[in-house]
Amino acid sequence: MVVANNKISLVRERLKYFDSLPLNQEDFRDNNNQLSERKGFFARDFGMEQWDWPQGVAIYGLHLEGPLNDEYIKQWATEEINKGLPTKNVNTICPLLTLVDYPEYENMALEWMKWIEREFPRTDENGLQHITSGIDKFTVKENRQQIWVDTLFMTVLFMGKMGVKYDNQAWREDAIEQMLLHCKYLLNRKSGLFYHGWNFEEQSNYGGNFWCRGNSWITIGIPLFLEIMKGYLAKSSEVYLLNLYNNQVKTLLDLRSKDGLWHTILTDATSYTETSGSAGIIAGILLGIKNDFLTIQLSDETINDLISSLTAKIAEDGTVLGVSAGTPISCNAEDYKGIVQMPMVYGQAMTLLALSIAKSLKEKEIK
After folding, report:
1. What Gene3D superfamilies does this protein map onto (predicted)?
2. Residues 34-49: pLDDT tens digits?
3. 171, 163 in Cβ contact below 8 A?
4. What CATH number is given for 5-19+40-366 in this structure?
């Protein structure tokens, strides 16, 4: 298996110093930002100088490489804490998935976990309501009675990790419940793919779109959840999640585009191929191979082709290209197809995640 180590270093260094989106003030002058957000323009900063989910995914990707990036991660966290932390919500929890591994941030992680346990807004059936940051980091968008697939990576992995780290059964059980509940309402049983969200009030999957990056949170999220919860899952739950994962991967492999990646609407070949979601899918497939979760036998040629398809999207300066901007939920597939493509910090992070797992898989084979 071929892994381009020079590509990893380029992506990593570009990620560390990723700037804000090159947006003009005019992008936010329309009707309460709604038209801009439909294109992927959000008033929040999506560079590294912010505490939200893109940066949480970024430091997770960096942390996966081991101590190499410890100094940067701690410096980033300290600077963001000194600025003032944002409101607690699904997405701002994401950085703690990484930071809980550092003693300096354990008390903060415990405080936020207790908030999840006691105060997190819940939907029907006790789901984590997909509350997110609003127009700035001090406001919250409620998304009333909605659960989204993003929550599994942004919040549920952290919940499981905290339940294991502090041997708290209630936290572990809540994490398992959230994983199963989200899969219950987001799974399309016929295809094995997952919808973006579910609205309990409307009893709706919002048009039933199979969004690429949304599905990638499952492809990488289930293997990571199984890793985190090893020894704490009932065999029945483990088998259930493994079946979901393998069924999804089988369908995804059949849906690869000509360039080896996946369309932003997975089942719509007229939609553009999208790199961040594809990177998450590739990361999940490789992690499944590494941990023997994947029942499908992939040839070395196929694995190399997956990695090569991803590295082809990396520019000479390490910028990951073909990434869709911020994506709100929609009933209309055309809205997903209309999201602008531009370099994004999470595109760098998810690509780094995939390449790092590929590197560790290669090292395992050598041993």
Report:
1. 1.50.10.10
2. 656 666 666 555 789 9
3. yes
4. 1.50.10.10
